[in-house]
Write a structure and sequence with these properties.
One of its GO terms (molecular function) is potassium:chloride symporter activity. This is Solute carrier family 12 member 7. The chain is an alpha/beta fold. The chain has 35 helices and 15 strands. Among the domains are: about 400 residues, Amino acid/polyamine transporter I, CATH 1.20.1740.10; about 140 residues, 3-Layer(aba) Sandwich (Rossmann fold); about 190 residues, Rossmann fold, CATH 3.40.50. The longest helix has about 45 residues.
Amino acid sequence: MPTNFTVVPVEARADGGQDEAAEAAEATEGTEGTEETEGTEAPGPPEGEPDCQSPGDGNPRENSPFINHTEVEQENFFEGKNMALFEEEMDSNPMVSSLLNKLANYTNLSQGVVEHEEHEEDSKRREVKSPRMGTFIGVYLPCLQNILGVILFLRLTWIVGAAGVLESFLIVSMCCTCTMLTAISMSAIATNGVVPAGGSYYMISRSLGPEFGGAVGLCFYLGTTFAGAMYILGTIEIFLTYISPSAAIIQAETAEGEAAAMLHNMRVYGTCTLVLMAMVVFVGVKYVNKLALVFLACVVLSILAIYAGVVKTAFDPPDIPVCLLGNRTLSRRGFDVCAKFHTANNSTTPTALWGLFCNSSMPSATCDEYFAQNNVTEIQGIPGVASGVLLDNLWSAYADKGAFVERKGTPSVPVPEESRAGGLPYVLTDIMTYFTMLVGIYFPSVTGIMAGSNRSGDLRDAQKSIPTGTILAIVTTSFIYLSCIVLFGACIEGVILRDKFGEALQGKLVIGMLAWPSPWVIVIGSFFSTCGAGLQSLTGAPRLLQAIARDGIIPFLQVFGHGKANGEPTWALLLTALICETGILIASLDSVAPILSMFFLMCYMFVNLACAVQTLLRTPNWRPRFRYYHWALSFLGMSLCLALMFVCSWYYALVAMLIAGCIYKYIEYRGAEKEWGDGIRGLSLNAARYALLRVEHGPPHTKNWRPQVLVMLNLDEEQRVKHPRLLSLTTQLKAGKGLTIVGAVLEGTYLDKHVEAQRAEENIRSLMGVEKTKGFCQLVVSSNLRDGMSHLIQSAGLGGMKHNTVLMAWPESWKQEDNTFSWKNFVETVRDTTAAQQALLVAKNVDLFPQNQERFGDGDIDVWWVVHDGGLLMLLPFLLRQHKVWRKCRMRIFTVAQVDDNSIQMKKDLQVFLYHLRISAEVEVVEMVENDISAFTYEKTLMMEQRSQMLKQMQLSKTEREREAQLIHDRNTASHSVVATRTQAPSTPDKVQMTWTKEKLIAEKYKNKEPGVSGFKDLFSLKPNQSNVRRMHTAVKLNGVVLSRSRGAQLVLLNMPGPPRNRQGDENYMEFLEVLTEGLNRVLLVRGSGREVVTIYS
């Protein structure tokens, strides 16, 4: 979209600035793209002005790749004059003129360098010459050279003969459609911003993320490497079959061994050629690039010779006789005359052909039965385009391995099935032919469409040249392939088309016999073109591997990122040569072609997927200049690529996908974390949004309920976590399933504490990584801890992904004088969770809980089920035992029976209930006999209330509190000794008067108002509240029962009583919980949310 810029000079102000017009003119030059290297210094301040910094430049600027620090320091003077309003922003943000100047002089980097993504402070971009390659030279010709190659010259005639013109047309149309759709998707990606010279790997990795990018990048690398092997094998096949057959080192002793000897020769010559080519690439790529145009000229001349030969056959077909025995094609390598007898000087003598089929040269010799029954005929191998042979070649003629190459419509006398003894000069098929196999062999001939995008760093306007050049190259090559199919079918006899190695033509190249002016034009041209294509593959593949290695996404490949001083990938070239050697050892062109088809098809499939994902996500940054794309075309291309993979070879396709999947999982597990703004991240966000909207309405069904935990962490003064074992418990409870939110509160204001908040969040995330806690971190800065915890409980999570359970640590220091408000925060948090209908888990003695590395060999998890909480007490031990730490622990459930309860029936009912819940546990019913309140309980309640009244009513200084606390401690010690003495001799406890009269209340009120220590000491005359005494009695009694049975348990889960409705008794509530859990090692207090979380139904 064209955009017009108008640069308006800022008027000089009256209070300063003498040469702002010069600055405006300079900015204009920057926006118009005047080339200026980084070494060029910006003009200094105008004359007469002091060389000083503006007030806004007190801090160093951000190290941005678009800013030159020398220019920045000298431009500060101008910035302070006209842009004083933006002084603060100038400390971190560049001026527009400076930014545009750097963007105008932006240069692409070499392939795969990390500096493009992460600009290091000590690295500077190298100055390179401005690229000048256009569409024709930079994209069209390289694509043409890579697409047209070995398959066209060596296999296309054979494919037409085996599949027929119609099915060959279908094969080529499918493959060309696939590459055209891929080119459209690639054009959209390549024109969506600047693409450094990383080619398809760069596009896929930055569109689909490092996992997909690494997997597909390696597949593309393997495809390019095996393509090099295929081109080398094609070169050797042309040399040994059509140029110099006598150069074979290994000779076959029998006719059956010719194929094996040929494969051995290809291995020997292929290895030597690979070593030679690798040395050429190692010495210097510049020689390969200089020879590229020569090799391309060979391809173009060869194709022109083919078309010229076709035109010539219309009025002057070449004389190329083919010998047939019956309808079977004969090889012309062992005889010259196509006849059984030769007549000369009125005498008839058997020919050399007779000697091949008979046991002697005499007319009365015993001959092969088929030879005796059928006549020998001679036909024209290339009858010409006007001969009408096209109709005979329309349909397929697939055959099994070792079958005779037979001419349709020729009379033949069948004979009983004979043993196909070696030595008979028949032309036989070397491999079994069928449609899908031919697709796999042909597809490599349409690869090479990435050649233009691989050179994007050398193009004058890559966003214009890549789409135009690539699509034009595909259109051109598609026309060449489709027209050649029709012309071959119209000019050449079917038996010659199916003769892969030209045995009926005395071992000459079939397509060469069609060409004009000489067959050697095709032979020499195809030899050099395949040789050049092999060199190009050995040049490109190591650079692709180097780019992947330098990105650092696959750790074990990083050694291949190094190379020579000039950046040549030495180690990558060595690995490429070794992989290429495995392809050469296969030695069969027809076996190697499907392998590289798989890798290229997978690469093209992910290019289409990348375009489709980006289009459907509609990310704001997706703005390709190439407009002629659509997500439906990309999906069609992706589907076609996937279909072609399984059409070519389903087992090769599965192997290729398995390799890519293993690489993907390896990068996900061991690879470096990279954030490239890829489409998979956007796809995940869209999927998450869709899922959140689906689960927004209503609570989940009981069957789907699981604890979605909000973990409340406490931080110390250095923003480190106080109780890391709380995260260990979270990991053991969750096992990576469900939602986990790790929350913390910092006290203060966000403006003052944002740095500490970031540091605290980093500490929490690192601890989550150590403890393997999978979840989210949410940190709140609040004016006080109480409000911050309330905010977290209310607002943590998003939509339906909100927590339903709060996990926190018991405040161990709640009794300390300098921490008087911790118990208030705790009790208010309990009330908040109750109001929010959320479950609450409180871990007491949390530092004694096991780490994830520990393993309990045995032990018990004891559940004390006092009141029904929705089944959470049953569910938590089951979840804990899924983790390795608790797996070997047994689960025991204790429930408390009152005096009126039938304990035997309760046990039976509980066992049935657990059976229906599919939870295995031992069951025990504990009877709590109702007895009188002990003196110990009375004394403990009295001390609790005295302490409470002391802290409430007296405004004591810290020293006074310490003194009076010591006084209470001494009294408590004395009362404990009295209680111990009393409990030794059983006796009926004294009745205690626990009622308040009006007179006592008034007197106590006036006592409390009296100043001094005397009023404080009168607190000892208080009588405990009867309700508190009952609660303390329950806590003491239940604690004794729990201790008697669960003192040695690994974990005790206990119902957590709710806080009192009257807020004045909050500190008493803490004392009750302390007494309830006293003497136990690990305790998890559980308070349900008020809804059922387990069900007996399926």
